[in-house]
Structures are given as C-alpha cells and as structure tokens.
Amino acid sequence: MYKILVIEPLHPEALQLIDARNDVSYQLVTDVSEENILAHIEDADALTIRVSTLPVKALQKGKKLKVVSRHGVGYDNIPLDECNRLGIPLALVGSVNSIAVSEQTIFLMMAAAKLGAIFNQGVKIGNFGIRSKYRPMELNEKKLLIVGFGKIGREVAKRAQALGMDILVYDPYQKPDENDLKVLPSLEEGLEIADVITLHLPLTPETKYLIGRKELAILKDKAILVNTSRGGIIDENALHETLCTGKLHGVGLDVFEEEPVHPDNPILSHDRVIVSPHSSALTDDTLKAMGMMTVQNALNAIDGCLDPALVVNPDVL
Ligand code: NAD
Is the pTM of this model over 0.90? Predict the structure, then answer.
C-alpha cells in the first residue's frame, strides 16, 4: 500500500481521488510542526503541502518520497536545493489558479484606483462628503507595467486590455509574442513611466526586495502598486516610507513579508492601502482544481508518470 502524507487539508473531492484507489491511502497532518511531520514522513511515498514550511529534515527522513506536490505555484516554502540534492521532484499545479489570481489583481487595482477602502469606510460612518475630498483614478489609457509575464501575468494583461489600459511587460526570461504589448529591456524603464505596477514573479534570492527604496523613488507621482505574488518582493519598510510622503495614489496587497500580517504593521495604517489575506486563489473553483491537481501529481509520481511540465526540477526525473 502506498501512502500520501497530506500536510494541511485538501478539498474533499481531491481526497476522493485517493479513496478511489485501493493501492493508495493518505494520512492527513494538520499539526505542521517539524516534530509532527517527521513523525509521519518515513513511510510516505509522496507528500502534498500547502503553505507551511517543509523542513529540510522531512526530505532527508522521507527516504521513499517520489514527489513533493505543492498545492499552488509558488514554492518559497520548499527547500528546493535539498529536493535537487536528493533527486525528489517538486510538482506544482500549473495554470489552475491563474484566473483567480488575475481576477484578484484586477480587483485590487480597481479598488486602489477608485479608493474603494476610503469611500466604503467614509460612507458607512456617515461621511458622504468624503466624495469631495479624494479623487478616484481612471484606468482607461493608463500604462500598466506587468513584472513577471508567466501564467498569471498573461491573464492580467488580457483583463487589463479590456479596461483600455496600455500594457508594458518586464520579464527577463520570457519573450512575449503578443504584438500589442510593449516589452521593456529593464525594470527601471517601466517603473519610470507606468501608472500602475503589478507583480507576478516568484520570490527567490534574486527577486527579494526587487521593489525597494530606489525603485519606489523612481515611480511616477500618483502611481498604483499591486502585489499578489509574494511578500518580500516589495521592501515593506521602504513602501511605508514612500506612502508617508503621499506620493502613491494607492497600493493593493494580497501578500506580506510576514504572514499572517501583524495588525500593527505600519503598512496597514495607510488608508490608500487595500489588502486581502493571501486569498487570491481561494475561490471554490480554484481550491477544488488545485486540490485535484495536487493529488493527481502525487498519484502520477507513484505511478511513474509525473508530467515534467509541472515539475520545477525536471532534471531529477
Ligand atoms: P509563472 O512561473 O508562470 O510566471 C512567473 C514569471 O516570473 C515567469 O515568466 C518568470 O520568467 C518571471 N520572472 C522570474 N524572475 C523574474 C524577475 N527577476 N523579473 C521579472 N520577471 C521574472 O508563475 P505564475 O503562475 O504566473 O505565478 C507567479 C507568482 O504568483 C508565483 O511565483 C507565486 O509566488 C504567486 N502566486 C500567488 C498566489 C496568491 O494566492 N496570492 C497564487 C498563485 C501564485
């Protein structure tokens, strides 16, 4: 009997894929402490994991592991170097969450442009006159810089084009072939001219604080910044300082350097910042699709037919 260690719950229909097999069982672990994971990893043939940090020792002790199947597309919570060293593939869910995240990106961009948080709060406390104090921004014909033009960035582009925005792209590893986009040779060039900047790239040592003090300084006055990728790509201290100067029209954040974000985080004190709790991909449709894909990757690895296109480190296959 093969065993899948399910670290953090998955959609019930995803777990039914395992129930349907008489040669595979699963063990659900909700206590994600290192000690508890180590207690259950030794006989696991595959593991699935959501947002908790996978301990290096779990990979070392999991001698039968044929895959680490991540419920998502970011993998900064997985020790990839150790996966590589031990020859364990790290599988992701592909494009199944791209639509949900792109929709949340558009929501945060629109909310920031239209001062959603400020006006909502104002009207509810009887301050209808707030309409004369702040000016919402129109997005038609504004320049949207998409940093990271992978699966989510491309979905954001389609939706923003429907809003009449001009799309600029910065991604040193992709060559977009859409001819209605402007591809930029450097990030700085985009930051200087964009009205809205949205981030869709992984958090890696290279991208940590990609948007720091220097980058924020070159943004246009009244720019909007949106981040649904990972906290840590923006330097929050530098962002707080920039917000204090009143330079930005708005900021939309789904992700934070530290999650859960602490209520005392100074970023949250700015009324032009609208936030969500890393919830971009948590729609019913996407949770089900991500759960199914996560389990399918684990089963495929057990069956020896893992799709290399879904694997971060296909060289180990
Ligand atoms: P993807 O791999 O399809 O695209 C990422 C793109 O980033 C690639 O095209 C890559 O070339 C580009 N990139 C890498 N380094 C770069 C750099 N220094 N500058 C500019 N571009 C760079 O991934 P995706 O599915 O589009 O997801 C993007 C990110 O969104 C993920 O890494 C993940 O961290 C995040 N994400 C967040 C949520 C959420 O719930 N908020 C959900 C899904 C994904």
Answer: yes
Domain extents in the chain: 2-96+284-316, 98-275
Model confidence at 95, pLDDT cuts 50, 70, 90, reads very high
Ligand 1 binding residues, C-beta < 6 A: 72-74, 97-98, 101, 147-153, 170-174, 200-203, 206-207, 228-230, 254-255, 278, 280-281
Question: Count of CB atoms within 10 A of residue 207's CB?
Answer: 18
Q: Tokens 């480190």 belong to which residue?
A: 313
Beta strand 166-170 with 182-183: parallel, antiparallel or unpaired?
parallel
CATH 3.40.50.720 fits 98-275, yes or no: yes
The domain over range 2-96+284-316 is classified in CATH as 3.40.50.720: yes
**Among 16, 156, 158, 150, which Cα is nearest to 73's?**
150
**Confidence (pLDDT) at 180:** 81
Distance of CA 60 to the CA centre of its chain: 27
Structure token pair of residue 166: 């001009």
